[in-house]
């Protein structure tokens, strides 16, 4: 059984995937928290209509790359 070491391209791709997944999970968790808060406020007083909830922007390509760089720096720290 042979094991092939990952090359630089594979490592960078995995870091991008990991960064994207982390940022998307954070976005979904924050969105869920905002929605839960909104529904809680509405259910306490059904006559009170709060303003529509606002959500953080979905992660951009630049944010994903920035996060991947942070992960890469951590991995390369000795």
Give structural notes:
By secondary structure, this protein is mainly alpha-helical. The chain has one domain (17-76). It is built from 2 helices and no strands. Helix 1 crosses helix 2 (61-76). The two termini are 30 Å apart.
**DSSP strand count:** 0
- Major sheet details: none
Measured between the Cα atoms of the first and last residue, the distance is: 30 Å
Number of helices: 2
Helices and strands in order:
Blueprint: H1 8-44, H2 61-76
Helix pairs in contact: 1-2
Can you summarize this structure?
The protein is built from two helices and no strands. The protein has helices at residues 8-44, 61-76.
Q: Features of this protein?
A:
78 residues, mainly alpha, 2 helices
